[in-house]
C-alpha cells in the first residue's frame, strides 16, 4: 500500500489540535478529523454497507538468540474480525455522521436467497444513495529473544583514619550480559470502494486505501491487537466518506509527570505517547492517569480502538473517575 502510518501521522499536523484553558489548572486537547468534507458527498443521505471481506491473515513468530534468528509461521485466529469491522463501521457512522445506514449483511441473513446483491438489482439498493465495499488483510509478528548489553558495576569503600574518612577502594568494571526483550506488531491494510447508486445503476465514486499499525512491548496476544485495529480502521474510513469533521475534546489528567503534561499541552502527541509507553513499561505498578493520557494520544492520532483499550485499563484501576467513564462512553 502506498499509504502508510507515517504518512497518516503527518496528517495529524493538519488536525485542529488546540490547547484550551491555558490560564487555569485544567487543560484540554481539542482535535478533529484531518480532512474536511468533500463536495462529492453532498446530497447523499443513505449508505449501504455491502461486502466486508478479509482476504488474508498471516502471522510469524521470530526468535532472536543473540543475533541468530529463527522464523516460524504462526496461526492467526481472527475468526469474526469481518463482523467486528462491519459492526464498528456501522456504529461509527451512526454516531459520527448523519447518514441513514443499510446493512446488507442483515438482509442476507434474513433472506438466504440474497447470496449476492449488486447495485443494478434489488429494491433495497434503490433506497440507497451510495454503497461501500471493503477488503482488508492482517499481518502480525511476535519477536522475542535477547541481545548483548554492556553493564558497568562499581565498588567503593571508605575507612576512618583519625578524624577523616579516607577512600580505600574505588573501582569499576564492565560486564556483557544478555538482556531479554519481546514485542508484538500487527498491521492491517485495507482497500475501500465507494459506489454511487442512481436509479438502480452503479458508478464508482471513489477508491481509497490505508493502513493502521499496532505495536506493543511487552507482548500482547496478536488476536487482541488485530481486533483493536479492526475498530481503529473504521476511523480512517469514516474520514474518507464523512460529510463533516468530528470534533473531540479531552481533559488532560495532571497526575502524569511534568514532562508528559508539557508534551500534551504543546500537542506533541508522538513524543507524549512514546514517553508514556516508556513509563508504563518501566513501572511494575501502572497508574490509571498515565493509561488515560496515553489513550488521549492514540485517540488524537486516529486510533480510537487502541485508545478505548487504555481507557478501559484506567477505569479498571479507578472506577469512579469521571474522565475515564466519559472517554469510554464517547467511544463505545
TrEMBL record:
SMART domains: TPR (SM00028)
PROSITE patterns from the UniProt entry: PROKAR_LIPOPROTEIN
InterPro entries, alphabetized: TPR-like_helical_dom_sf, TPR_rpt
Name assigned to this protein: Tetratricopeptide repeat protein
Organism: SAR324 cluster bacterium
UniProt lineage: Bacteria, Deltaproteobacteria, SAR324 cluster
